[in-house]
C-alpha cells in the first residue's frame, strides 16, 4: 500500500468530528471541494468507504468509525514529531463566556492540543461583558462571547446560539406566583434579554437562584427549583424546553463571536481549529 497522505488523514478526522465538509475546510483554511477530493482519494487508496454522504449530513461509516482512532493517533504522532523542534512554548490566553462552556469543551481542547502539542492554553470563563472588557484591556489573546444579533461587532461570527426555557419535564408553576428563574444575575446579558421578554409579555417573574456558568444555573433547574435560560445543547439530563407548554415568549438569538488580533501562524491555526469546533455546534 502507498504511503497515506497526512493532509487527507487530517481532513478525514476533522470532517468526522465536525460532521461537515464546509467546517472542516474552514478549520484547514481550504475549500469544501478540495477537502472532498482529498477524502475520495483516501477512500480509493484504502479501498474503504469512510464517510456516508447525504445532502444534509456527513457521518462515519462502520469502516470509518473503525479507522478514526488510528487516524487521530497518526495525526497526533505527526504533530508531536514536528513540535519536537519547537523550543518555545506558546501561551494562548482565551476568554470564554460561561454560557458557552459545555460538554463539548473537552473535545475542542483535545483538537487544539493535537494540532499544536507545545501550545499552552489558558482558559478563563466569565460573563460575556467581563470577557469583552478583559479583551479590550489587552488581558486576553482571544475572546469568545455572546452578543445580541442586532449588535454591531468587528469579530468573527461563528454561529447563532438559540436559548430555551429549561426545567424538569414535570415542572409546573405555582398558581398566582411569579415565574421562578435561575440566572447568572443582573450582569448577564442573556438574563436581561430573557426578563425583558417576560416583562413585555406581562409575565411576573422572580429570581430564586443565581449562579455562575451554565452548569450551576442548569443544576437549579434540574433540581426543580426554577426555570433556567440556557442554550438547548446545555440543558442538563432529564430537563426539557418548557417554553411552549407554559406559553412563554420566544427568547432572542445571540451570536457567538470570536475576537482576536493575533496574526502569528501558530495562534491563528489553533484559533481556527477552535472556531471550526464551535461552528459545528450550530
Your description of this structure?
- This protein is an alpha/beta fold and 282 residues long.
- It has nine helices and twelve strands.
- The strands form three sheets. Strands 4-3-5-12-6 form a five-stranded mixed sheet. It has a five-stranded mixed sheet with strand order 9-8-10-7-11, with helices on both faces.
- The two termini are 39 Å apart.
What does the secondary structure layout of this molecule look like, with pairings?
Layout: H1 6-18, H2 21-28, H3 32-46, E1 51-53, E2 58-60, H4 62-83, E3 90-97, H5 105-115, E4 119-126, H6 128-136, E5 142-148, E6 156-161, E7 163-168, E8 179-183, H7 189-200, E9 205-210, H8 214-222, E10 227-231, E11 239-241, E12 254-260, H9 265-279
Parallel strand pairs: 3-4, 3-5, 8-9, 8-10
Antiparallel strand pairs: 1-2, 5-12, 6-12, 7-10, 7-11
Helix pairs in contact: 1-2, 1-3, 1-4, 2-3, 2-9, 5-9
